[in-house]
UniProtKB/TrEMBL annotation:
<feature type="transmembrane region" description="Helical">
    <location>
        <begin position="304"/>
        <end position="324"/>
    </location>
</feature>
<feature type="domain" description="FAD-binding">
    <location>
        <begin position="8"/>
        <end position="236"/>
    </location>
</feature>
<dbReference type="GO" id="GO:0071949">
    <property type="term" value="F:FAD binding"/>
</dbReference>
<keyword id="KW-0812">Transmembrane</keyword>
<keyword id="KW-0472">Membrane</keyword>
<dbReference type="GO" id="GO:0005741">
    <property type="term" value="C:mitochondrial outer membrane"/>
</dbReference>
<keyword id="KW-0285">Flavoprotein</keyword>
<keyword id="KW-0503">Monooxygenase</keyword>
<dbReference type="Pfam" id="PF01494">
    <property type="entry name" value="FAD_binding_3"/>
</dbReference>
<dbReference type="GO" id="GO:0004502">
    <property type="term" value="F:kynurenine 3-monooxygenase activity"/>
</dbReference>
<keyword id="KW-1133">Transmembrane helix</keyword>
<keyword id="KW-0560">Oxidoreductase</keyword>
<protein>
    <recommendedName>
        <fullName>FAD-binding domain-containing protein</fullName>
    </recommendedName>
</protein>
<dbReference type="GO" id="GO:0070189">
    <property type="term" value="P:kynurenine metabolic process"/>
</dbReference>
<dbReference type="InterPro" id="IPR036188">
    <property type="entry name" value="FAD/NAD-bd_sf"/>
</dbReference>
<feature type="transmembrane region" description="Helical">
    <location>
        <begin position="265"/>
        <end position="283"/>
    </location>
</feature>
<dbReference type="InterPro" id="IPR002938">
    <property type="entry name" value="FAD-bd"/>
</dbReference>
Amino acid sequence: AEQYNNVRIFFSHKLMACDFLSGEAIFYNKHGEEVRTKVDLIVGADGAYSRVRKQMMKLNRFDYQQQYIPHGYMELNIPPGKDGQFAMEVNYLHIWPRHEYMLIALPNVDKSYTTTLFMPFEKFESITSEQQLLGMFQREFPDSLPLLGQKQLVETFFSSTPQAMVSVKCHPYHVKGQAVLLGDAAHAMVPFYGQGMNCGLEDCIVLNEILDKYGDDFEKALPEYTQLRHPDAVAICELAMYNYIEMRSKVTTRSFWLRKQLDNFLYWLFPSTWVPLYTMVSFTRIPYHQCVLHRKWQDRMLTLGLGTAAAATGVALVATWYTLGHQGHIFSNLQLPVSLTTTMSQVQQWLHI
């Protein structure tokens, strides 16, 4: 930004207050001196603990919600292997899901892995000795221990503090034509979908498109920005919270992997119609809330398809036995799930058996 002649950057200035009606912002510099400045538009891109948002909360009809999850996180490190290369397969997200906690590893350009441990704060606090820490890793993450290194793990764990994770929702994102919130200031989210920065950058794209549409008329553009972005921001915040459960627990279930394989097969079969949720969210410009709606449609289609398949199977079974002359015996020796038994009973009545 500093390459543009009309951009001036001031470091070590802390925002204390802003008057949205007059367009005045009040800062304190590093010497403790008050600095007042007049602006046309105040853009709050100042993070999850936004000072601009705090000022907006003093206005009427401004909704705000924040939620801390009970888990904290701590960053560890897997260095490159002895050959200077990645210590694990590089083109994967590595997850050690353990229901109440998990370990994940993401590759870096220097061939190391940023490895993050997510656990309830109570679990972090209960580990007070080297023996407890190594015992937990040997029990829960045994294959990660040689990669992390016992000495490095102990040093990092006991010299670090687990950090909190917060989800923030608010509405609206603007004050008339005077101020607007972008990024985490508008919609901080837990990190489990990897969309925090992407969502913030998309805010910029959407706002820029709307400003172009209205010829930089803030009074018209900012309300439309709130109208468009709020449903998407709420959707991705909720998706991130859901993934918090999915990554540490649901990925260990058969139903998760069956659904994943089914989604991938249908995506291969109908690439323009059946797009998996993660693909929609991460690799397209489909608005987040529409991704959620499309996923719900997919769920309904699968439920309908399975129900239809069960009914068709029931009809086929009954028709076969009826044709073979075993009308009275099909249900006497065949044990069926309750839902399928109900379907069979309805089919019996329909066929007058």
